[in-house]
Design a protein that fits this description.
754 residues, mainly beta, Immunoglobulin-like, Maltoporin, Chain A, 2 domains, 22-stranded antiparallel barrel, five-stranded mixed beta sheet, globular
Length: 754
């Protein structure tokens, strides 16, 4: 009751013109059988053609309705569309409806072009994941249209990410979260924004939301090229055990067990625990000995009709050996083979332990209050050798990057709906807090992962980010919606340099405002036009912020999208968009060398095209093509290229799945040639790959095969221009160094449900 009184002035401010003489409809969407609340369901009200979406607890509402009889159409991807007719509304009264949806095969005909401010191309379902060759959760990122990843240091290191003309490295310009937990690591020992998703078990992913650009008030740091939000399943329908085996000594086992059973689900309580273990030697001449272990548990309970708690905890450990990147000349001379190594003592280990608590309370059907607290304990140790014997001709140039980190955070949001001048107004106000503390963030020269030769950097980082945002979505007309948002972030940073006895570990403060404006226009039920724009940012490393005294260390990103979504027929869906993104001057901390480099201003332009076609009832065709042009705006002509920025990418495939019996997919992915250095004198070679999945599901048993690189193409996964020296060379040589991509690789699996 106290919370309601505190929030009442806010509600009145944003909904001051609520008409008390008209009626309203309040409803809730749940899953048939489990009773789980379905967030993000689309609800259409006729007559009137009004739309809304269900909130976190599945609630939705329509206010200010004239007395009469209405029809509700409820759609949700992966569920049957449901039509509720003859919903009576009376003056000054609220009509309550409860709707349960049964799971069903995805039908493109039921996908709405107009879904408030959400987009049908912004989600990945469990079905998408099942029909892709997935080895780790990092591979799920490949499903995001236009996003490519590359592994270049064994299986355990976070993958390099490419999106919208960015070589994002390991996460500098994309915001990644799992159940609200941050994945990006600020001021990381290896690089700013380092994002490792290996702590997530792929089979537990319920859905993935992705958005491109910096246009969303509820997304803060690293949201420049876009964001990806993973959500793990709340309820385990069945316990299962999955066993996998494949080439190169690959073996994996996953088990997930429902702890409370169906009776508890009917009482809106659920709990499960899951574990994953994985091992692979990889396809390199020197075995990777890649080990990964995951343990995850989640408890969810609806305390009453108005509030829910969710508690989860997880543990993750991983270790691996790596062959690293290899130079072209070493292969051409016959010194090593394609899968050989100059220094095969590279590798690393990492661990992550998470605790997550969420409380959601419905103040009424149109208002919601969310609170989340989380804690992360993280360790990282990585050994690399990029230049071989360039710096030290005797011992070699191996380096160690290491840190231990603790993260404490809070996410809070208040959501409400009302009317402004007779038009529906959705309001969200949020608060964000995150504190990162690292012990002994280190860069050292090492030898064979056994000896520390010298320390280049050693210190403790303490960084706090506090953010506040407001987002208003005004439904000005059935065909026109406006969303405006404003976000403010404050960073407090401190660094204790343990290699400098007279260093002053002072604390500096920097702040930034990020306005957003998004317009959606629906000329017809089959066409949506949108113009989105706004500012975003990514923070710089604390080891840059402190020496710069907080000046010019929160580079802004200004972006805009102009696009259309249209359905020329019920079984065909297109999305086309032209986009623009510019970044301000930034100072980048290079974790491999402990130096600071000026990044300069950049400009990126591009276009995205996506298509989805339901050819038959269970046969789907999808295609995504992106083009981008990335340039530095402060360099002379001919030296403006941004190394490794992707120019042309394309993915697509055919998928067949009807729930039971045979399912499968044939997938292709293409990454075009791109500049490897600023003057484009070196090219990073592109590639074209085919992957496939085939399986059979009957009752409680499922088995299948996943195949990668069906054509056994000799492709280069990660590529860099690097100056290096081999042991027998007098002078260093600058050329392309690369990690060879996966050859033909097949693995099989069997799953037992019970």
């Amino acid at each position: 009751m106290k919370n309601k009184l505190l929030l009442l002035p806010i509600s009145l401010f944003f909904a001051f013109s609520l008409n008390a003489h008209n009626g309203s409809i309040n409803g809730q969407i749940t899953e048939h059988g489990t009773g789980m609340e379905l967030a993000g369901g689309t609800v259409r009200l006729d007559p009137g053609g009004l739309y809304t979406n269900s909130n976190t607890l599945g609630f939705f509402n329509f206010n200010n309705l004239a007395a009469g009889t209405y029809t509700l159409t409820i759609s949700y991807i992966g569920f049957e569309t449901k039509i509720v007719e003859n919903v009576a509304v009376r003056d000054a009264e609220t009509t309550t409806v409860k709707i349960d949806l049964k799971t069903a095969a995805i039908e493109l005909e039921n996908v709405e072009v107009k879904t408030a401010t959400s987009q049908p191309f912004q989600s990945i379902s469990a079905l998408d994941i099942r029909t892709r060759p997935i080895t780790t959760t990092q591979d799920v990122l490949r499903i995001v249209p236009g996003l490519f990843i590359a592994q270049h240091a064994g299986g355990g290191k976070a993958e390099q990410i490419f999106l919208r003309g960015f070589d994002i490295d390991h996460g500098t310009d994309i915001n990644l979260t799992v159940d609200g937990l941050p994945v990006n690591m600020v001021s990381h020992a290896h690089g700013q924004g380092y994002a490792d998703l290996h702590f997530v078990i792929p089979e537990l992913i319920d859905n993935v939301e992705f958005k491109k650009g910096p246009y969303y008030a509820d997304a803060g740091n690293f949201t420049t090229a876009g964001l990806v939000r993973f959500k793990t399943t709340d309820v385990l329908d069945r316990s299962f055990l999955k066993l996998e085996g494949g080439q190169f000594g690959t073996a994996r086992a996953v088990g997930a067990f429902n702890l409370l059973g169906k009776n508890a689900q009917r009482q809106n309580r659920s709990a499960y625990i899951a574990s994953e273990t994985y091992y692979s030697d990889g396809y390199f001449d020197s075995p990777q000995a890649f080990n990964r272990f995951n343990l995850f548990g989640k408890f969810r309970a609806l305390l009453d009709d108005e509030q829910r708690i969710t508690i989860s905890a997880s543990a993750f450990q991983s270790s691996w050996d790596a062959s690293g990147q290899i130079p072209e000349r070493a292969i051409q001379s016959g010194q090593i083979g394609r899968f050989g190594a100059i220094d095969d003592t590279e590798g690393g280990k990492t661990s992550r332990y998470n605790f997550n608590f969420e409380h959601v309370k419905s103040l009424n059907n149109s208002s919601l209050f969310k609170n989340q607290l989380y804690y992360v304990d993280y360790s990282f140790e990585l050994y690399s050798n990029f230049t071989f014997f360039k710096e030290d001709p005797v011992n070699g140039d191996q380096i160690r990057q290491k840190e231990h980190r603790r993260i404490l955070g809070y996410n809070g949001a208040y959501q409400t709906s009302g009317d402004l001048f007779g038009k529906k107004l959705d309001t969200e106000i949020g608060l964000y807090f995150r504190n990162d503390q690292t012990d002994d963030s280190e860069l050292s020269r090492s030898l064979q992962r056994a000896f520390t030769r010298s320390r280049l950097a050693l210190g403790d980082v303490n960084e706090t980010n506090t953010g506040l945002y407001a987002s208003e979505t005004w439904h000005l007309a059935p065909k026109f919606t406006l969303n405006a948002g404003l976000r403010g972030d404050v960073f407090q940073s401190a660094y204790d340099n343990k290699l400098d006895s007279v260093y002053d570990p002072g604390r500096v403060t920097a702040s930034i405002l990020s306005p957003k404006l998004n317009l959606y226009f629906d000329p017809s039920s089959a066409l949506r036009l949108y113009l989105t724009g706004g500012y975003g940012f990514h923070s710089n490393d604390t080891r840059v912020v402190v020496p710069q005294n907080g000046q010019e260390v929160l580079p802004k990103a200004l972006g805009a999208d102009l696009g259309a979504i249209f359905k020329p027929s019920p079984a065909v869906l297109f999305n086309v968009a032209a986009w623009y993104l510019s970044l301000d001057q930034e100072f980048v901390y290079v974790g491999d060398e402990a130096i600071v480099e000026a990044g300069g201003k950049t400009l990126r332009l591009g276009a995205d095209v996506s298509a989805r076609v339901q050819m038959f009832q269970n046969l789907y065709l999808d295609a995504d093509v992106t083009y981008s042009r990335a340039r530095s705006t402060e360099e002379p002509e001919g030296a403006q290229f941004i190394p490794l920025a992707p120019q042309l990418t394309a993915t697509g495939g055919l998928s067949w799945d009807k729930g039971q019996g045979f399912f499968g997919s044939l997938r292709c992915r293409h990454l075009g040639d791109r500049p490897a250095n600023e003057d484009n004198s070196l090219n990073a070679e592109g590639y074209f790959l085919l992957d496939a999945v085939a399986g059979w599901k009957k009752g409680k048993i499922e088995f299948g095969l996943n195949a990668q690189n069906l054509l056994n193409s000799a492709w280069k996964e990660a590529q860099f221009e690097t100056e290096s020296r081999l042991r027998n060379e007098i002078e260093p040589v600058s050329e392309i160094h690369y990690t060879p991509g996966t050859p033909f690789f097949v693995k099989g699996y069997v799953t037992f449900s019970f």
